[in-house]
Amino acid sequence: MHKYLTGFLLAFTFATSALAQGTWPDRPIKLIVGAAPGGSNDVVGRAIADGMSRVLGQPVVVENKPGVGSSIASEFVLKAPADGYTVLVGTAAGISVNPAIDPRWASAQTLVPVVKLTSSPLVITVNTQLGIKTVGQLIDYAKKHPGQLNCAHQA
């Protein structure tokens, strides 16, 4: 039920701005996902696409455009016609962080978020054998052991 409600809300959001263009939608919609297939953003995008398809009565086709924290996807959507048929499921990095720190992605700042789809916590974890209990301790450890820590993340 939740994914249908989200699909309805997204469809309503896009429909209200596209009504002035005539009958919308009258053809498939591209849902551009700024992540590789199989990741959390892709799963959300596909659930949204399914709900939107049911509500709108048109196929919503997911296209993955991974890279640079969804900035590649953001740029792709910016270059598409502004007709309501190309929609982005991106990240905060792709439309605010990356453009602020790298001028190559500055045009992505012209995108306007219309709905927050998800929220997820970010955590820092360490091996319990290190005895680290706080971020401060982790920083101190990293300073005392340069080049000895590895980092991994999942966006």
Folded structure, characterized:
The protein has 155 residues and is mostly helical. The chain has one domain: D-Maltodextrin-Binding Protein, domain 2 (3-Layer(aba) Sandwich). The chain is 41% helix and 9% strand. It is built from 5 helices and 3 strands. A 3-stranded parallel beta sheet has the order 2-1-3, sandwiched between helices. Strand 1, helix 2 and strand 2 form a beta-alpha-beta unit. Helix 1 crosses helix 2 and helix 3 packs across helix 4.
Describe the protein's topology:
Blueprint: H1 2-18, E1 29-33, H2 40-56, E2 60-64, H3 71-79, E3 86-89, H4 92-101, H5 135-144
Parallel strand pairs: 1-2, 1-3
Helix pairs in contact: 1-2, 3-4
Using brief descriptors, characterize the structure shown.
mainly alpha; about 10% strand; elongated; three-stranded parallel β-sheet; 5 helices; about 40% helix; about 160 residues; 3 strands; D-Maltodextrin-Binding Protein, domain 2
